[in-house]
Amino acid sequence: GDVYKRQAFFHGADSFRPHEKAPARHLVIPVFYRLLYCCGLRPAEARLLKKENVDLVRGSVYVVESKGHKDRVVAVADDLLQIMRSYSTLISEIYPDSDYFFPRYDGDGPYTKRWTEEMFWRCFSMAGITAFEGPKPRVYDFRHTFATECICRWMREGRDIDAMLPFLSAYMGHARYEDTLYYCLLYTSDAADEARS
Q1: CA distance 55 to 30
Q2: pLDDT band at 131 (very low <50, low <70, confident <90, very high)
C-alpha cells in the first residue's frame, strides 16, 4: 500500500552514494524529501529555501513570499530537526559560501524543478519500485499526504476538525480557507473508498 511505498521511497532516498560531480547529492536528497513530507512545503519552497531562513535552534523554517506573496513560519518536529542539523553541518563543509539550504551540485544556486522530479523517480527506482496502480505519484503529493495525515490524526484524537483547520491553513500557507477544506473532502473520499473495498 501507500505506507509501504513511502517507506521504500525513503529507503531509496537514503541509498544514494557520494558522486564526484554532485558531492552533496547523497546528503541533500534524504533531507529535501523528508522536509516536503514532514512539513507539507511546496516543492519550490524547499528548493528555494535560503540558509538564513532556517532556524536550527528554534526548529523553524521561514518561507518567504511563496504562492500569493504570503510569508509564513513553519515549525519543524524534533526528529526532523536533528536530521537537518546534522545535514547543515555536513553541507556547510562542502559548500560554505552557498546561500541555499539545498545548494545545487555546483554550489551556485538552487536545484531545478526538473531535478526534484528526476530524483523523485530515482528514489523509487533505487527502492525497486517501477510500477504503480492508478495515477503516478508526483513530488507535490507529499504536500497532500501531509495535510490528509494531519486531518486523519486529529480525527483519531477526537479533535474538533473545524477548529483545527484554520491552523492547518495558516501552516500550509493557503490564501483561501477553501484550499484547506479540499483535503477534508479528499480524506473523506479516500476513507469511503477504503470502507467499500
Answers
A1: 19
A2: confident
Let me know: does 151 contact 168? Beta carbons within 8 Å. Answer: yes
Q: What is the pLDDT of residue 195?
A: 37
User: In this model, does residue 88 exceed pLDDT 90?
Assistant: yes
**What is the mean pLDDT of the segment spanning 97-120?**
94
pLDDT in tens, 132-144: 888 889 999 999 8
Q: Read off the C-alpha cell for 161.
A: 476538525
Q: What is the dihedral of CA 131, 136, 141, 147, to 10 degrees?
A: -90
Helices and strands counted in the chain (H then E): 8, 3
Rounded distance between C-alpha atoms, residue 51 and residue 140, angstroms: 22
E strand or H helix at 62, and its extent?
strand 60-63
- Would you say the C-alpha torsion 86, 6, 58, 97 has a positive or negative sign? positive
Closest CA to 29 of 141, 115, 129, 131: 115
Q: What is the helix (H) or strand (E) element at residue 40, kind and residue range? A: none
- Which stretches of 72-140 are DSSP H helices? 78-94, 113-126
Question: Which residues, at least 6 apart from 66, have a Cβ–Cβ distance to it below 8 Å?
Answer: 42, 44, 45, 72, 173
pLDDT recorded at residue 133:
83
